[in-house]
Amino acid sequence: MKKILLLTVIFFMAVYFVLTKFFPDVEINKYDSLATVQEKKAIENGWVPKNLPATAYDIVETHDIDTNVVLGKFSYKEEDEKRFLANLEAEGEVFKSEGFLFRVDKEANLVNFKSK
After folding, report:
1. Residue 68 pairs with which residues in a beta bridge?
2. Where do the domains of the chain lie?
3. Of 8, 25, 72, 88, which sits 20 to 30 A from 17 (CA to CA)?
4. Helical H runs in the chain?
5. Average confidence (pLDDT) per 10 residues, the chain, 116 residues
């Protein structure tokens, strides 16, 4: 009886290890606009930065529930570029604001972001 119990515990520990190690809790979400981000409460959950430009579109974020790492990108219309950049703190080619790092491609109007 003790052997069966021990083997059962070892089996479930091995299954747990395999599931957590090789199948992380990663979720990918896509939003067409800032309104959709707000509707889905992605900003409140910390998956998307608060200071997205009003014209942000094609917003994609990937968050790992196990590590709390967030990666994402979005496009914006050029009319919002100055206002958006004014809310960021420059550190060389990287910008930062409220727990996120941003890499801005001004030619493509594309921003990649990552949680700190």
Report:
1. none
2. 25-115
3. 72
4. 2-22, 34-39, 81-86
5. 77 73 81 96 94 96 89 96 94 93 95 94
